[in-house]
Design goal:
Layout (H helix, E strand, L loop, with lengths): L1 H30 L1 H8 L1 H4 L10 H11 L4 E8 L6 E7 L16 H5 L5 E7 L6 E5 L5 H11 L3 H26 L4 H6 L9 H27 L5 H11 L22 H9 L5 E7 L8 E7 L9 E5 L6 E5 L6 H13 L6 H33 L1
Antiparallel strand pairs: 1-2, 1-5, 2-3, 3-4, 5-6, 6-7, 7-8
Length: 384
């Protein structure tokens, strides 16, 4: 029986090994994306904290002065007094012509989003109003790494290639565990540690077998959760298994007192901060029309992970909270799906899980190579 599983393990690895190597390597790079960005671009994210902050409208006007054709979409503020305010905005499609050639590798769903305009973020000092940087994530090196990780620079075709390779990777990992499983305690001891002082062939074998076992469970989790970004049927399956609906609650409308006297952004934010005053961040989304309220998403410090955010809707005229959507009140399928991202990027338990994710992805990068060397040595031995 193990001969059968060994052949499946080998042939699938030969077919998808290169894609698996690239996906694991880019995944390892992306684990500490936020930390690396803040380390190498500290001026973008941090300023010297002072006693008084400028009003949000003043900060927004500074951005509009620098970008007259900008359409402000949201404002993100942090409880950390040293963090800069992030003002997201779009520019009209005419301003995107120079960058359209670089976007041809996106998948259809990713292409549809920038149709509203080029998406940029202005990092603004909340104390003096100076714009530290206008940032285009699509022009960053990390977005290129993400492009390789998710689409192999191949748009829709690349997305399918990555998805199929991920499915194959799951089978490879499962068959690898079956092949690793020892018959007795003596073999078990051999497969749990690397033999010191051995030659290259034995070290390569032990690397593949021993580290493969230790990292298999983590790679299985990363690969399984990664399917959610490749296949729609997988997403639908989450809600089918949990017996819940994919449909999110509808955005409420403003009350009947619609007039020309709309509350400002500061007042909308204060309507929520008066209730929740110690969140990690507050992300204020501006209404698209006169009927929509302000939407303020926030992450409480007690949240179980970074995707467990709550949304509060504030009437754009009356200034009261008209509705809220708490993470704990979402149905089972929505909570499970929201958990996939922090699990997949290994941020679910903070720094410890990120270190585990980095090591597992780095090990996964070289398993196809070590397995190929084992197969090549075995083939040469048979020929001799």
């Amino acid at each position: 029986m193990k001969v059968f599983f060994r052949r499946i393990h080998l042939y699938l690895a030969l077919g998808a090994g290169l894609v698996i190597m690239v996906t694991c390597l880019t995944g390892a790079i992306l684990v500490f994306e936020k930390e690396l960005m803040q380390l190498f671009h500290k001026h973008r994210y941090y300023s010297t904290a002072q006693t008084s902050r400028l009003p949000l409208d003043t900060l927004i006007n500074r951005v509009l002065q620098a970008e007259p054709v900008a359409k402000i979409t949201s404002v993100k503020l942090y409880s950390n007094p040293a963090r800069n305010v992030e003002i997201s905005f779009t520019k009209n499609p005419a301003g995107r012509k120079k960058t359209e050639g670089k976007q041809k590798t996106r998948s259809k769903d990713e292409k549809a989003k920038p149709a509203e305009g080029l998406r940029l973020v202005a990092f603004v000092d909340p104390y003096d109003g100076n714009i530290k940087e206008i940032y285009n994530h699509r022009a960053s090196c990390f977005y290129w790494v993400m492009d390789v990780h998710r689409w192999m620079l191949g748009g829709d075709i690349g997305k399918i290639v990555v998805g199929v390779s991920t499915l194959i990777f799951l089978v490879i990992l499962l068959t690898g565990i079956i092949l690793w499983w020892p018959r007795n305690r003596q073999i078990l001891q051999q497969r749990l540690k690397i033999k010191a002082g051995a030659g290259f062939k034995r070290l390569n074998h032990d690397y593949h077998v021993v580290f493969g076992f230790y990292s298999a469970i983590f790679l299985l989790v990363f690969a399984f959760t990664g399917l959610a970004w490749s296949f729609e049927w997988f997403n639908k399956g989450i809600y089918t298994v949990t017996g819940t609906s994919m449909e999110r609650p509808k955005v409420p409308k403003n009350g009947e007192n619609i007039s020309s006297l709309k509350i400002n952004r500061e007042q909308a934010l204060q309507a929520v901060t008066g209730t929740i005053n110690d969140a990690v961040y507050y992300n204020l989304t501006l209404p698209k029309d006169v009927t929509e309220p302000y939407a303020i998403s926030l992450l409480e410090r007690s949240a179980i992970h970074e995707s467990a955010s709550d949304i509060y809707y504030v009437d754009a005229y009356a200034g009261n909270i008209v509705s809220r959507q708490l993470f704990t009140e979402r149905n089972m399928g929505q909570r499970v799906r929201a958990t996939f991202k922090p699990v997949h990027i290994a941020s679910i338990y903070g720094l410890p899980s990120k270190i585990i994710g980095l090591l597992a992805c780095l090990l996964g990068t070289f398993f196809p190579a070590s397995g190929f060397i084992m197969w090549w040595n075995r083939t040469r031995k048979k020929k001799k």
